[in-house]
Write a structure and sequence with these properties.
Globin-like; mainly alpha; 83% helix; 0% strand; single chain; 2 domains
Length: 198
């Protein structure tokens, strides 16, 4: 399968799973005008979370990213999130953001934490703008769509690296991973005094 088709498959699957409609995209475009007026406050809040993270500090040092460059990247992503079409081209841009983070050694956990910080900031901005709960639901769905595509960038890069470095197929690696996950799961359940399930 070509990379474009793979990205489209992930994007469309996430849209179905999250029930993202054309109406959601139209709605976020309308919201975008109001929210972009509050972008400096949102970017500052998300940046403060990022810069206070021990997990992020090493990556930030290694990549030599400045607060200004991080703010620019956040602003670009925010504009795309609020004004993007959520089509294949948009999905490819978001997927590439994930690859850029993977390339710089940003941990997937940090990507999830950053998405959480963005959700917090977007919800605060919605409240400040006097928007109803439906707007929060729409933005939440679209934020998760973004996260899924970024994390898919990590997945593709990891699988390709594994194939090249070890010759192990992604299917075999997945089987080995699941076996190890089962081992750790059983160990944790035992330590918690709870019998493993399944």
């Amino acid at each position: 399968m070509s990379l474009d088709r793979d990205i489209e498959r992930i994007s469309e699957g996430a849209k179905r799973y999250l029930e993202i409609s054309e109406e959601d995209i139209r709605r976020v475009h309308e919201l975008g005008d109001k929210l972009l007026e509050l972008s400096e406050k949102m970017i500052s809040g998300a940046l403060n979370s990022l810069l206070s993270s021990e997990l992020a500090s090493e990556t930030i040092k290694e990549s030599r990213i400045t607060r200004g460059r991080a703010a620019e990247a956040f602003a670009e992503w925010l504009r795309e999130t609020l004004k993007g079409d959520y089509d294949l081209e948009h999905a490819k841009r978001v997927f590439t953001i994930g690859l850029a983070h993977a390339r710089h050694g940003v941990h997937r956990r940090l990507m999830c934490l950053c998405a959480g910080a963005w959700l917090r900031e977007l919800l605060k901005a919605l409240k400040e703008a006097g928007e109803p709960l439906d707007s929060a639901i729409t933005l939440s769905k679209l934020l998760v769509w973004n996260l899924v595509l970024m994390l898919h960038g990590y997945h593709v890069a990891r699988n390709e690296s594994l194939k090249r470095a070890s010759g192990i197929s992604p299917a075999l690696f997945e089987r080995l991973f699941r076996l190890k996950a089962d081992e750790v799961y059983r160990s944790m359940r035992e330590r918690m005094g709870r019998p493993p399930r399944g």
